[in-house]
């Protein structure tokens, strides 16, 4: 039987911590982090702290969002006039003009609607081309 009443100790035996000698030229005006920086260890990094999160982690939670850019009114108007131009033919000319304005506005991604402007340009040019071919055919035949 052992000395402790039959039970053995489960706690590990630790050796005493080594003593670190104080620097010879301790300056009272130095801040604590400056005094420990000479040893290469920051007093703010220990087993209870973790590294600071990155900027993206810090500002990606709720309440921090980037609002979407505004839509280009010219691009929307260009598509409307392009669709009207399919039936009436004259608004297709305005669709081409407004489509080019919409493309210029959305060039540097500060505004949305580049796809609308491009679709209006394509549709406007197709409609104007169709009507130009149709009028040329009537003029040549008659």
Automatic annotation (TrEMBL):
Domain of life: Bacteria
Alphabetized InterPro entries for the sequence: DUF4190
Transmembrane portions of the chain: 73-104, 116-140
Domain DUF4190: 75-134
This protein's UniProt keywords: Membrane, Transmembrane, Transmembrane helix
Pfam families the UniProt entry points to: DUF4190
Designated name of the protein: DUF4190 domain-containing protein
């Amino acid at each position: 039987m052992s000395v402790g009443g039959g039970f053995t100790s489960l706690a590990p035996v630790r050796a005493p911590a080594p003593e670190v000698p104080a620097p010879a030229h301790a300056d009272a005006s130095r801040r604590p982090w400056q005094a420990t920086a000479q040893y290469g260890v920051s007093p703010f990094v220990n087993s209870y702290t973790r590294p600071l999160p990155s900027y993206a982690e810090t500002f990606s939670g709720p309440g921090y969002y980037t609002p979407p850019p505004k839509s280009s009114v010219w691009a929307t108007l260009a598509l409307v006039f392009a669709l009207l131009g399919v039936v009436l033919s004259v608004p297709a000319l305005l669709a081409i003009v407004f489509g080019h304005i919409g493309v210029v506005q959305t060039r540097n991604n500060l505004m949305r609607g580049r796809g609308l402007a491009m679709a209006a340009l394509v549709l406007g040019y197709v409609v104007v081309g169709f009507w130009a071919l149709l009028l040329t055919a009537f003029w040549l035949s008659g």
